[in-house]
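User: Okay, second chain of the day. Same drill as before: sequence in, structure tokens out.
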Amino acid sequence: MSAINTGSDMFSPAFKSLLHEATLTNEMLAAGATQIRNANYSTRGVYFQAFTSLATGLERIGKLALILNHIADNHGALPDAAFFKHLKRTLGHNLRAIYLSLREIQARRNMRVKFLNSLDHTIHSAVLSVLHNFAMGDRYSNISALAGIRQRDDPVAAWHETVDLPLFETSVKQQKKAEIWAKASVIGRAFGPHAAVLHFSESGSEITDLAEASYRTGVALAVAPYRQLCVLQVLRYFVEILWNLEESANSAGSNDVPAMGEIFAIFYNNDAMFRSRKTWKR
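Assistant: Same drill. Structure tokens below.
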């Protein structure tokens, strides 16, 4: 009896490597987009889970885009060792440098995009900045403080100050703000004298007042959908650039590029669709 042909040789090693990398990256971004909605002052670990998934996912999708751009620029040829050394050692975890590289490619190729033309809006820029700093070393802020070495910024505090608070001020309606404060006041008066509270705020200060804890919880819940939407808009920008470069690489004669548009299709949607769901894990 002849062996069954499993079709394992249907695709080139390069195709399979790009496919696996893209699939992994998509899963990381989906996890981060889900986790960022659930984080608040009482679950700081969820912030770190979200930041880790998002920062790593954006680095990888950005580098995938740079690989496809190289293929497109070189008549379908795969990058050489020197190019991958550049990705690893020169760019590394530098999300700002990766983003600026994509902007240069976008301008040079005169790319037409359907959604955001850049991430230069204040909130999108803040999201990218926190994730960049997290990737470059802020993820070790607790250890740095413990070891007494050069202090890193607390990424949770930075996110709260540059993303959440501006979103709360500009996106949450005044009526909702008043409701949050009124509810916190009632809870504080009714249960505060009989309850002990000890938490740490996003900035690291102690929370010992029940009314403050309730208020911060209300703020986090109100901001959560807007925070998630902004993150999804950032992801969509990277996906749209990648999608354009997939077409360019295929047009250059490459047979090694999988269907990036299909792999990352979940992130190529309008804002109304983004608002319609909370969970992005499959």
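Residues 210-251 form the longest helix (42 residues).

User: Thanks, on to the next one.
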